[in-house]
C-alpha cells in the first residue's frame, strides 16, 4: 500500500518545483522590465569648452533630456560667473535678482525639482553674446524610468566636479538594470540571466 503513495508524492514534489521555477521566471521578467534610464547623470556644461562664450550652449542642450536627480557641472574662468535667474533675468541678461551667484570656476548644480532652470553669466556682454543656458527638468516616470516617448538620453559627460553615477554608453543599451540607492544602477548581465534560466529548467525537471 505504501508504494501507492510514491507517484503522488513525486507529483507533489514536481509541482512544488514548477511553482518555484515560475516564481523565478516572474522575478526575472520583473527585472527585465526595469527601464534603462534609472540613474542620475552628471553633465559637463559646454563639453570641453565649458561655461564660456565660445561654447554653443543651445546646441549643447539640444537633444538632451534632463531629469530630477541629474547634475550640471559648470567649469569656467575667472572672467565669468554663474548666476541662476528667473525667465525675465534670462531674457534680459540681468543677474539683479539671481537666486544663485558663483564665481569659483567649478560649480555643481543639482537638478532637484522639475521645471525650467535659467543660467547666465553675470557679465551682461557675455550673456548677450550667448553665455546663457535654459534647461527643462523633467520628473521621471513612476518606477524611475524616462517617460514613454522621451528622446534617447545622451551618454553622460563627466569632468572634474562631476559627482554622480558611473558613466554609461550605448554599448549597454537594452540590458536591464536595478536601481540601487536612487543614483546608481547594477547591471543584470547575460550571464546572470543564463544562470537563472538554467536553474529554472533544472527545477522543472
UniProtKB/TrEMBL annotation:
- Per the record, which residues fall in region Disordered? 143-167
- Which SUPFAM superfamilies does this UniProt record tie to the protein? Cupredoxins (SSF49503)
**What Gene3D superfamilies would the database entry show?**
Cupredoxins - blue copper proteins (2.60.40.420)
Where along the sequence do coiled-coil regions lie?
Answer: none
Report if keyword Glycoprotein is assigned.
yes
Q: Which UniProt keywords apply?
A: Glycoprotein, Metal-binding, Signal
Classification via Pfam families: Cu_bind_like
Q: Which GO terms describe its molecular function?
A: electron transfer activity; metal ion binding
Known PROSITE patterns for this protein? Answer: PHYTOCYANIN (PS51485)
Instruction: Please provide one cellular component term from the Gene Ontology annotations of this protein.
Output: plasma membrane
What residue stretches are annotated with the Phytocyanin domain? 41-139
Q: Does the keyword Membrane apply?
A: no
Where does the signal peptide begin and end? 1-40
Name of the protein this chain belongs to: Phytocyanin domain-containing protein
Amino acid at each position: 500500500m505504501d508504494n501507492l503513495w510514491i507517484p503522488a508524492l513525486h507529483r507533489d514534489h514536481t509541482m512544488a518545483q514548477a511553482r518555484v521555477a515560475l516564481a523565478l521566471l516572474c522575478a526575472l521578467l520583473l527585472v527585465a522590465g526595469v527601464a534603462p534610464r534609472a540613474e542620475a547623470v552628471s553633465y559637463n556644461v559646454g563639453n570641453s569648452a565649458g561655461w564660456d562664450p565660445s561654447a554653443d550652449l543651445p546646441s549643447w542642450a539640444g537633444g538632451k533630456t534632463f531629469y530630477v536627480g541629474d547634475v550640471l557641472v559648470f567649469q569656467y574662468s575667472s572672467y565669468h560667473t554663474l548666476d541662476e535667474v528667473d525667465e525675465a533675468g534670462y531674457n534680459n541678461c540681468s543677474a539683479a535678482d539671481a537666486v544663485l551667484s558663483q564665481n569659483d570656476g567649478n560649480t555643481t548644480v543639482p537638478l532637484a525639482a522639475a521645471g525650467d532652470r535659467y543660467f547666465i553669466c553675470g557679465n551682461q556682454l557675455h550673456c548677450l553674446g550667448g553665455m546663457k543656458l535654459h534647461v527643462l527638468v523633467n520628473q521621471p516616470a513612476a518606477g524611475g524610468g524616462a517617460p514613454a516617448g522621451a528622446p534617447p538620453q545622451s551618454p553622460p559627460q563627466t569632468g572634474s566636479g562631476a559627482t554622480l553615477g558611473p558613466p554609461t554608453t550605448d554599448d549597454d543599451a537594452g540590458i536591464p538594470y536595478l536601481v540601487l540607492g536612487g543614483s546608481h544602477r547594477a547591471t543584470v548581465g547575460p550571464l546572470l540571466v543564463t544562470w537563472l534560466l538554467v536553474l529554472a529548467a533544472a527545477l522543472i525537471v
